[in-house]
Model the fold of this input.
Amino acid sequence: MNVVLFTREYPPEVYGGAGVHVEYLSRELARRTHVNVRCFGRPRVNVASPDGSSEEPVVEAFGPWAALAGPERYLPVLQTLSVNLAMVVGLELADVAHSHTWYANFAGHLAKLLYSIPHVITSHSLEPLRPWKAEQLGPGGYAVSMFCERVALESADAVIAVSQAMRGDLERVYPGIDPSRICVIHNGIDPEEYRPDPNTDALDRYGIRTDRPMVLFVGRVARQKGIVHLLDAARLLDRRTQLVLVAAAPDTPEILEQTKKRCEMLRSEGADVIWIDRILPKRDVTQLLTHATVFCCPSIYEPLGIVNLEAMACETPVVATATGGIPEVVADGRTGILVPIEPRDDGTGEPKDPARFAADLAEAINELVADPKRARQMGVAGRREAVERFSWGAVAEQTISVYERARRGFRGDPSPTERTGGGR
Done:
């Protein structure tokens, strides 16, 4: 079987969970079948041979059309579409198209139409549930991103949800999808790469002390990731605590500025805040996760939260929002503490009472900082859960089964929405 994966992110240009997913899934798939990864960005160095005999994916990278260069407000979304068009050229030998996120869903949809092959989508998030994307893409760009996602999902031959919560969101937000085409396959973890690292050289480089408790955040500077709520909670943390933020790739200048102001205010009040504003090598992240007293995931929207698995695999207890697919990964009271959130009624996912949410985050973090023995027990239990329940090999096997079902049931016809020209 010849599989083509469409993705925005691929190493070394990975900034989110979808990129991590494609990195490990493509590696495992390539041990079982021929895989061609088509991604955005700079040219990649291929380890694989063209015939796939080296059991590594063949990777091709594509950039936007140069003719689109300029200060146009919607240039980013137009460039994204141009990359999608370029990625679909020359796939006559492909048997299955598999796309990830709206950035690449349109390429998968076009491959389905052009080459009469089934299109499988892994749904990592849903655009209608991320209204803050209008700040990042502009209202028109956000409308285009939702269009690309909707058409692709409603026409897909199979949709993989990364959690049961995501499946529920898909059925609610896109009732045009045949529920029989949706299945759940959780993300995985490589327990050999993500494991406790007793070394401290990375901590020394970033000025992190080993004689004080550390609360760690790893994620994008984005409203979705709840970083501003963690910074509000930091004012209530035990004063011995170091708050370490590994946070880059801001969605907008506004969220970046809000984060900067909160960090400056905390430091002026005597809090110990270390902000590492770049994407770190995997080894450094693993070492920081290992030495963190608590890993905090304060997301207001999180279909699964693969970073929680990474923390658990490093034997670190997790304090996370009880939202989306996070409760399917973090066992409350056993591998971490889940913090409830009551979202506003406006669809943003933001808490109705931000002060209460921040206080609850701080209370859960302080509870584990004050009880190192309990935190340690949670960490050990977390690694055991990560190793036993989440495996990329199992993810790959389940994904191939989805491909085979999609090929058997492939009809090649457009969705009812496309045939009638309708849509929401």
In short: The chain has two domains: 2-188+391-420, 201-389. Residues 319 and 365 are 7 Å apart (CA to CA).
